[in-house]
Amino acid sequence: MSLGELLVSDFGITPEDLNRAESYQTRFGGRVEQTLVNMGSLSDDQLPVLYAKFFNIPLIDLAEWEAAPALDIDKNTIAFLLENHWVPLAADGNHWILACQYPLDLSVNEWLIANNIDADVHIVGETEFQLLSSKYDTEQQEEASDEYLGDEEERLKELASEAPTVNLLNSLISKALRQGASDMHLEPYKGRYRARYRVDGVLHEAEVLSPRMQLPIVTRLKILSGMDIAEKRRPQDGKIEMKIANQDLDIRVSALPLNDGESMVLRFLRKDNVQYDMSVIGLSDDIEALVREDIKTTAGVVLLTGPTGSGKTTTLYTFLNALNNDDVKIITLEDPVEYQLPGINQVQVNSDIGFNFAAGLRSIVRQDPDIIMLGEIRDKETAQIALQSALTGHLVFSTVHTNDAASAYTRLLDLGVEEFLLNAALVSIVAQRLARKVCPKCTAEHPQQEELIAKYDLQSLAEKFNVETIKLRSGKGCDHCAHSGFKGRMAITEYLRCDDEIKVMAKDATFIPKAKAHNNSLARRTLLEDGLYKAILGLTTIDEVIRVAG
């Protein structure tokens, strides 16, 4: 199989892109795969796998070689190999074991022949190369640290713009995007610098980086995101706009000083991949029908509750998207505006100039909107304006931080909102969590199905909610889901409609249990029950439900 055929069959390269890259190679030289990387059609962290498959050379087993000591080899030889992205791992006379990024490097192969060296070769990526080569650069680190004393800022800028730094950061971001990560965490750990990805709400260790790369990576991120590279004592925030692997990205960057370095967190906002559709967020059919009724009302407040990261904003955007047409004016007030929605007026608060949620909401009401989305209700003033806006003919969406739906009442009362205002304005409250979905490619019957049915009394739940067959599933793990057994997330929800029964209830210490009992009498599920309901339909696992809603 030719390299081009392998790129098309195994790496998703289109024949059109391959033809463009080959045409460029004919005119200007270079390697086809590198041209594809430059075009954004192939990510550079896929190159090691490509070379391993095409040349039939094994990928490095980092666990085997990471702790191996540096070899006592002539410094000029080491410098020559490292300069060409080869690193020696072991040497026994003329038999050497080496790791390289590109095995057909002419100068290194000529050197091996000239020195009569029989080489076993392993393929490495940028991350592994930096980690393995770091054991040879103690002197370089000492020289660099001396240079910092003279002109630290210029030296940092130099380090940040060097090819190894640029390639490593691009490789980490490309890998995060391919795995569907929402965040990447870079932080010091046990004398190293590690990268972790948050995929479907759960952190996974992705790479362990060479400690020498910490400063260049942090500096490059600060430069790209507009931070002060000389400031290492205070937290900073910034934003990067870039294009990687044909994806336009907004990346929110946060820097936090630690006692042994800096923690950098990158949040990826991929506009092209976000779908604001009821079917995508995973509401159960009965809850979706109730919600659709609520959002079609002309006035009132619909609240979403849940902790940070439970998908409240995405669900609110989905509601707005369902209502977005030429007949209505929709204005949102957010902190910050993360995704742009066509046809919707989005406003970002700015506390530094006194433009907070309350001030922004007062201004929005004067703009004659039909629908208002308020990012969060944090204080009494904001809550009162939002509720009064509902009474004057506006449909208002917002969020509060509570554990379940009924607790939203007590939270708003604690802020100082009058009970009559709540009873008059609230339409419904939806509590939400996000649970990972079982990977559709490797789903299989759960091996402990009978034990779990008995342990959680799932038969009674199935009968209560008219489920004929219990189908507990679990993912075995495959390439599609990065061997996690899960792919994607869906909402687990508790719905509370603010009907006449709820309105007449006293909002005292007995309100929450009474509200839950009322919901139960209407055959509406709690958060845990909705999670278990989706587990017996085979959409998620019992363990995942207990993790997020138990």
TrEMBL record:
Q: Which UniProt keywords apply?
A: ATP-binding, Nucleotide-binding
Name of the featured protein: Type II/IV secretion system protein
Task: Kindly name one Pfam family recorded for this protein.
Answer: MshEN
Q: Which family does it belong to?
A: Belongs to the GSP E family.
Residue span, Bacterial type II secretion system protein E domain: 365-379
Source organism's superkingdom? Bacteria
Tell me the organism: Thalassotalea euphylliae
Q: What is the lineage of its organism?
A: Bacteria, Pseudomonadati, Pseudomonadota, Gammaproteobacteria, Alteromonadales
Q: Output the SUPFAM superfamilies linked to this UniProt entry.
A: EspE N-terminal domain-like (SSF160246), P-loop containing nucleoside triphosphate hydrolases (SSF52540)
